[in-house]
Amino acid sequence: MALLSLPSPPSFSPYCVSISFSSWRQSSVAVSTAHHPIRFLPVAAAITTRHHQQSIPIDKSSLIVAETASEDQLWAAACLRVRSFYDFQASSYGIQDHKMYLAEREFEALKERIAGKREGFKKVSCINATLPFSKLSNSADDLCASCKFTDNGEDRVVVGTLDLNQCLWLPEEIAGTKPEGIEADFARAYLSNVCVARELHRNGLGYEIVMKSKIVAQEWGITDLYVHVAVDNEPAKNLYMKSGFLHENDEPAWQARFLDRPRRILLWVGLPCTNEL
Questions:
Q1: Do residues 41 and 109 make contact, with C-beta atoms less than 8 angstroms apart?
Q2: How far apart are the first and last CA of the chain?
Q3: By three-state DSSP, how is residue 189 classified?
Q4: CATH of domain 21-270
Q5: 240 is catalytic
Q6: Higher pLDDT pick, 240 / 9
Q7: Averaged over 242-256, what is the pLDDT?
Q8: Where is the N-acetyltransferase domain (predicted)?
Q9: Angle at 208 between CA 206 and CA 210, to 5 degrees
Q10: Using one digit for the tens of pLDDT, what is the confidence trace for 221-244?
């Protein structure tokens, strides 16, 4: 899937993510951009935060997990990421404008990556889990308002999202070691921006999008798939372990301190290659 004839994105502010929300400084310390206080959440924040909120059970018979097929859906995914990876103070002045600003930045960055305009990335795909608007509108009003899109005349909501990145490494992250040699240029990929709407945790949506990413990666000819996760993020680690990932490496403590974020571990899973490169 590719989005063609896309405009070049504007320049990014220091606090807007150009590759992955999870690759920037996501400490629990509040910062301020353009006079709008926001709080960066840890890696896979959508899996680890707000455990006190009751999860809404869903009917997965109408769930669709697929690569993004339209800019409308891509915008909804960008909105879910802002909603998931930033903790906004509701009383802050102009916070809705700032949410829109962040969503627009992520939307443009996503289009750039998918269009193949980002140096160092061979291929990028945004994979989303979506549900019909009618199934959620009575129980998750804010989610429906923020992350709705239209597909073939049907209103749907992006409830989970991630990026699959075919590349040798992600910026500011430790790199995988498999495969070695010239094959690594084509056969290594990373997951990033993995998140699920907080109202719908514990419905298996994270597992669904990760498993779909493995299928797409195999179709690309990927043999080695990686993901980074905070060392103390047990729910996210359990999700990836359930999906077949194994521990490969640890981020040096000095690097985590320098980037002002929780230390990461690198997880790996091998995939059978289904395509000839």
A1: no
A2: 18
A3: strand
A4: 3.40.630.30
A5: yes
A6: 240
A7: 97
A8: 100-264
A9: 70
A10: 999 999 999 999 999 999 999 999
